[in-house]
Amino acid sequence: MTYDLCIADRAYSSWSLRGWLLFAAFDIPVTLTVARLYEPGFAETLKAFHPARTVPALRLPEGVVLAESLAIAEELATRHPGAGLWPTDPKARAIARALVSEMHAGFTALRTHCPMNLRVAYADCAPPQAVLDDLARLQQIWDWARAETGASGPWLCGAYCAADAFFAPVAARIAGYTLPVGPQARAYVEAHLSHGPFRRWRAMGLVDGPDQPFYDRPWARRAWPGPEPLGAEACEGPSINEACPYSGRPVTHVARFRLPGMGPGDTRAVGFCNTFCRDKSVADPEAWPQLMALLQA
């Protein structure tokens, strides 16, 4: 069974992030087609995913294309009932679906004022009242979901589910624009920032193309509030490995990594099969289990 998912710039396309998480967070294999926003090639790429006009666009094994993230979530849940996209408990499942539906159609003030940009964080974005109203509503429904489902962990309805995938870009906005939320909402945001699939997506987003000027905002910047990455940098060989930890192909590019507890000059050089594999690893080494296994061997 082969799925082909068309996405756009990882740093900026919030709906692409949702679509990708529906695969990555639930261990469903997928092939990616990546397009660049605001470039002529974007429309050309989507022609291969007729009738889609936006991303994410998913081509099913039968050749049918789904161009709505909610439809993608429901179809994957039907085809992979054991993957955990929806909670198994009927009440929790109904609540998760209600959350996803509201996220899919709402919070336009927040989306407009704070477009997703995983490459920067702002100290303050002067949120207008409409954005503050959206934040209040988010916290209301998040608290409601936790109370109704009895969720005691970091996620809204128990185990991580499609509802959390749909709110991941909102968590990134709250973090990246330093938006005011209460302690429980802040903890939920921090859970997303530390979530392995999200960290991998952001690491790729930092290196998968030039900045898109459309998303720049004239506000003072600060450091990204997520986990601080390990020290790493591109370097010359030799490497401790002969095959890329992701693809298994021969090493052509090398980076140097420093693990916790190592001294300033104590590093290990790991090889990769291309620039992208190297650079996404340098961006956030701990996001990549294959790399960390190699470094800790």
TrEMBL record:
Keyword Transferase annotated: yes
CDD domains: GST_C_3 (cd03194)
Residue ranges occupied by any GST N-terminal domain in the UniProt entry: 1-84
Keyword Kinase: no
Species the sequence originates in: Pararhodobacter marinus
Protein name as it appears in the record: Glutathione S-transferase
Family matches, as Pfam families: GST_N_2
A single GO molecular function term of this UniProt record: glutathione transferase activity
